[in-house]
Amino acid sequence: MTSSEITRLLKQWGGGSQEALDQLIPLVHDELRAIASRHLAREWRPDRLQTTAVVNEAYLKLVDQREADWQNRGHFFAIASKLMRRILVDHARHELRSKRGAGAVHVALENAADLSADAPVDRVDMLMLDDALRRLETLDATQAKIVELRFFGGLTVEETAAALGSSAATVKREWAMAKSWLHRELTGGHTDRT
Predict the structure, then answer these.
(1) pTM for the model
(2) Which helix H or strand E contains 189, and what residues bound it?
(3) DSSP strands (E only) in the chain
(4) Of 58, 55, 73, which is closest to residue 6 (Cα–Cα)?
(5) Please, which residues bridge with residue 125 across strands?
(6) 65 pLDDT band (50/70/90 cuts)?
């Protein structure tokens, strides 16, 4: 199904069509599952949180967004990205509370090796990433949104550009700057791993 057909179904669902929702569920379920699977494959312990659980929780939260004025497929997955971020961060917080601060959940930062040539960081703590994203949001809300869409939503540069109403070149530039800023925040400015 094309992006425009998904957008049409989203708008119909927003208008109250149960039939549109019934057609939409299998389409977005597969994409939500792929997004969740990518996140959980990044060193997340599968015995603690599974793809199905993340997708089901995201789905339940998305259904509550029924009244949203869905602009397009990208807008839908932007909201899904934000919800998945909250789910993963909430789960990490719960893990830390239950372990009394031990056993922090780690997630590999997407393409961490390409943060920059001199920045080979490959993992970040989910809570540290969330805190850093909150700080970035106060400095540059667009860059924070791009990180959320790309990292948590798994959107491509082009999909991110469409969701933000921006150009792919702008997204690439802002994404590079955001990754560099996050690297400095998450490593305390350290670039060598010795």
Answers:
(1) 0.63
(2) none
(3) 106-107, 124-125
(4) 73
(5) 106
(6) low
